[in-house]
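FAQ: What does the model actually see?

It sees only this:
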Amino acid sequence: MNPLFEQRLHLTRREFFGRSASGIGAAALAWLMGRDALAAQAGASAGGASGLPGLPHFAPKAKRVIYLFQNGAPTHVELFDYKPKLKEMHGKPVPEEYLGSKRFSTMTGNPKGKLMLSPVEPFKQHGQSGAWVSAFLPHIASIADDVCFVKSMHTEAVNHAPAISFLLSGGQLPGRPSMGAWLTYGLGSETENLPAFAVMTSVSKGTTCGQIFYDFYWGSGFLPSRFQGVKFRGSGEPVLYLSNPDGISREMRRGLLDDITKLNEIKLKDFGDPEIATRIAQYEMAYRMQASVPELSDISKEPAEVLEAYGPQVKEQGAFAYNCLMARRLVERGVRFVQVMHAGWDQHNSITTELYTQCKDTDQPSAALVKDLKQRGLLDDTLVIWGGEFGRTPFIQGNIDDRKRWGRDHHPYAFTVWMAGGGVKPGITYGETDDLAMNVAKDPVHVHDLQATVLQLLGIDHERLTYKFQGRYFRLTDVHGHVVKGILG
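And it is asked to produce this:
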């Protein structure tokens, strides 16, 4: 075969356009390189990179975020939203005027005739603020004066994965950048030795709530993949391939990476593909993490009183308590966004059993994290968020005569999150639900409003942090969202 003809057969589509000197190929390449040059400028490396020009838009209150995301939807009526009328109406049908045309999950179907369910544990007021918190959460109750409870959250999704995606990325369908990706894209990184966006997951032992951690919960969507979260594992080495293979020294690894980088830089120069830049950056980050991660995960020098504060599971890699301590250690070292996800809150038939375990596993570490950050002077510019994707129904799911199987279904129309530090007013409760915790009655906060407020606290105008994809400028808040000024300190 003619060698010139054979070469044409093996040309890739990318090479074809890259070598075209005129016509649509050159025009398309010029557009792509112009677009990707901006992305490359936004993060020349996975660590220590500056953000977009002009960001932050104004002086930030917070420099970093720890999101304690509770997969499965904690029951607001059991934990935070005290309603005496629920106790009065226990066992009575839900009033139809509270339902309207609301859509519930297929497990509830038509809610007409469902029986109201009183909270399992009593509520008390706590601190100078007098915040109502259930006996399920005594440790979180102890930090009531450091916390802003937002009791008027509401969302549009009625099932878990779409609702989590909606809250973390602004869209119910997978494919959009997550909040951590947006922040690292816009603001860059404060560390060279660790990823700007770190993720850890955990689940309570023995739970029957089978929530799955999908990678798109911390994905970069259509942003260059260097902005996606780096997941730290719950067992073994925190990051895969942290150790060099037998016979490979650190010096040999350095030389190998240098040679690979030179080859990748040639390809990057030829084609301008942002994923090649990502590959270069991630190789370098992996090399630096070989030194930084062992130091990060060595908690042997933590004072005994600190370890004790986080609870008995703090030394168990992969436990929520361990992840909360790691979150503090990560933000100390300059990590921008730490996403700690804990599954098991999907109590369709276990609020009298598994909910106790869930609260025991998460209550003390959550409060300890806030106290630890405060004691170290980090809480002022670290925003801590605690909450799930929606709430739970004030009416029962199941047979009210079978107490061991009491449960509550998904409820997108009202739920509670709490926030601490990072410019949020401490010791307040914002928003209210009606007297059955069914609907928002005052100061509603939509998911996009929460996202806009988080960006505001980090010095970002949510309408101005955008990325052009498929001919449209996207943003975390889509085309919605209002800053909740009532919670800003």
